[in-house]
Amino acid sequence: MAGQKFQYDESGSTFFYFILSFLALILIPATFYFWPKKKTEDPNKSKNDCQCEGCCEKRIIILNADPYKNVKSFGVKFSIILGWVLLLLITYKVSQFDYEMSNFDPYEILGIPLGSSKSDVKKAYHKLSIVLHPDKETGDEKAFVKLTKAYKALTDDDARKNWEIYGNPDGPGAMSFGIALPSWIVEKENSVWVLGLYALVFMVALPIVVGTWWYRSIRFSGDKVLLDTTQLYFYFFHKTPNMALKRVIMILAASLEFDKRHNTQVPERPTDNEEVPSLIKLLPHLNEKCKEVPLCRNYSVKARAIIHAHLSRLLLNPNTLEKDRQFVIRKCPYLVNEMVSVVNQLIMLAYAGRISGQKLPPIETIENCMKLAPMIIQGLWEFKSTLLQLPHLTEDHLKYFVNKKRYIKSLQQFAKLSPDESRSLLRDLNDQEYDNVIKVLGRMPLIDFSIRCEVVDDENSNVVTAGAIVTVTVNLVRRSMSELFGDSSAVEKQTIKENDREKTSEENGIVGDGNEQKENAESKAKKPVWLKQKAHKGKPKSKSSKSKPAVGVMKQATSTTTTSNSNKENKENQAKPISMKDGNDSDADESSAESDNENVDEERDRSSEDERKNSSVEDDDMEWEKFQQKLNKREKLEGKSKTSHSVHCPNFPEDKQEYWWTYICDRKSQTLLTAPYHVTNLVDYQEVQLKFTAPRWPGVFTFTVCLRSDSYMGMDQQLDLKLDVKEAPAIPQYSEHWNISESEEEHQEQKDNESEFTTDSEMSDADEK
């Protein structure tokens, strides 16, 4: 290797090999990924789409959103085609090199038979040299060079022997090293130009490109939100933990994405000085005189006025403020998601003890942020009727939905009406407009929302002990609202249930829309066949399997009765030290308490034996659940899809997909137990696992599992999750020296923790007092 001499490519053949391989490595993946592909549209899609005025205008806006789309497509096609043409030319040139090197036969070149003598070789050479010599009229320089090489190969004994043995007059090929670059690059005359090009590319252009990309990337978070905006949200939500909905809108409008100094795409016009004040006069609850920075700045007031006008569905100037509305509303979903994330982080930081001196943000604050998302998408205030999400419906049509015979205020109730009744309600609409209403209503989501609760890591997964990690599996099945068409028998019952539910929610102080649980009853009545038979496919049903309760829903309803005795005993045990201080007889109390505890232990042993008997029936279900967990982990590793179903939202300037939030909270203490999980890929079925730590003391606790839509109003649901928390098993004492006793500090911590959650027994005691 030390004696090898590197040479540059004088003929240019190896340089073409380098260019050929380099172009192939770039063109093949570039053609696959960047070649413009035409989307195969369904011919029936245009018939099924809504043809209202708002949807038609939205399609035009989406088509005109990228005016240089055709130019970019043509440029990409031209570049790829030019690259392939160049690749074919280089391939042809390289193939000619290989043909000349692999087809050298001296006997064929001289035109003599194999094994001819030297005299025959000389005669043939002289005869052909007269014809092919470059000085002759019929001469050919390349052919004469090959002729001379063939003559030398056959007249020289060593060369002839090498050709007959190795197929090469030079003998066996020796290893050579070369640089696949032409020699003119290292010539002195061209050194200045080569060094200048090197410095321009690697010392000027490349640092500028990398620096620009880095400067832009560090300013944004993963959700395309400015980091300065995120810090702004942290400041306001930390300052005002309990934030109302209108205050959330003010914070949203103060986002720095709408400021010209942070975003150069923000349009500013001289006409804003006249149009914005006139728009503010039409909005009575704008609170434009707020002096809090940056809520009082011009960009914030303008964005707030545009958001209020969007929610009020006011018509704006199509050349000025309407374009500003499209720009502002287009960025709002990302900003609302960032708000939800910020409030969740503040709650988690408060739980971890990193934030002190401030009140914990209640559940109402994060729910107000979630409520704002469908309001922005549909362009409606929260107090407006959800029926206004349908096309062609106005406030004047709502008077037909409420009368002495019927009271229809939700989309589900309207879908259950018969065709004759729904047509009579919308008698002011023509046939085409009525068809648009039915199309949109039929494509709206109908979610079957169910939960299952278990403790995965424990031996008995159906028993929740104090301090255990509880896993709540949320099952979401997406159906279409068209399945409810014609079910008019349930309308009156549904209205009565909703009125009763609203009264109870107002009495208990539960914040909700009133329509959050009505889909649960519908899901129980109508469930897909495949969902019912999936876990028990090919297996006969036994009595034990029929009577097997689910911890999340069915068992929790029965657990309240079985634990009433234990709650009473806990009350007696708490009152026992007081009686001892008073000097009463404590022997009888201790003996009765011990007997009661023995009875409770016997009942627990019996329940555990029953559960062990049913464990053999649950083996197939556990295997199926483990298989589903593996699939979920694989989906997380491959990446989370963001494609579900398109939302009907003519007032939103972009295509929107159906997304959902699901989380667990405690309504009594107004606290959030799990981080909101954003479901972005609910097409037909989705399974989500939410985990939280059970309370540290035994009792019956009632939590709420919530499901909220970020695209439609009136689609929210919630289910009660009742946990019968048992006492944690005692730590085994392996030595007498390890006698661990509870200290006064542990008692004090237990008293402090009692304020986090409130049991049902404690609430009943408070009511009795």
Automatic annotation (TrEMBL):
InterPro entries: C2_domain_sf (IPR035892), DnaJ_domain (IPR001623), Ig_E-set (IPR014756), J_dom_sf (IPR036869), Sec63-dom (IPR004179). The chain crosses the membrane at residues 15-35, 74-92, 192-215. SMART domains: DnaJ, Sec63. GO terms for cellular component: Sec62/Sec63 complex. It is found in: Endoplasmic reticulum membrane. Coiled coil: none annotated. This is CLUMA_CG013491, isoform A.
